[in-house]
Amino acid sequence: MLKYLTAADYKHNTWTGGETTELFIYPPQAELGQRNFQCRISSATVNVERSEFSDFSGYQRFLQILQGEIRLQVGQDEPLDLPQLAYHYFPGEAKTVSEGQCRDFNVIYQSPISIDNEILLAGDQVQLQSDQAYFIFNPNQDAVDLEVETEKLRLASMAAVWAVEEKLSVTMKAGQTAILIAIKGLGVNK
């Protein structure tokens, strides 16, 4: 199953430091505030110089910088400088603070789910496996062109493709970059 997602499909939430766009949540009826989700994918703009992350005990987090640069302090670990397209995985319960303004991409997920990420560039080809779900996201202002098997897709800015339980070949035909998240253990049915 392939599903094309656009800005009209997303939830937007303003907070004191910026705005968050929820791109995907599973199960679909889950709510962030109730912490009853297994996996959530979002993108946020951070417009303040210092931001404290919410506690997501029992979850793992993935954070990738789309625009800008931040310094990330996770628990007692050494601070990390994350420039554009850099990413970091960390536990949701760790006291986490960032310094710097950015636009980011986030995945918050619970065990037994695991995720892998890949940045797709023009000419890249990936094979999607039928035992995983995939989220392919265009973070750019300009459209990117994908070919899924023989179907040509143009992803507008902030658009995404959700692929579930399909063994497919995906080729990035044109555009700057796209982000691919492979999600294993989600248990989504077609």
UniProtKB/TrEMBL annotation:
Tell me the organism.
Aerococcus kribbianus
Q: What is this protein called?
A: HutD family protein
The protein's matches in Pfam families, at most eight in alphabetical order, are given as: HutD (PF05962)
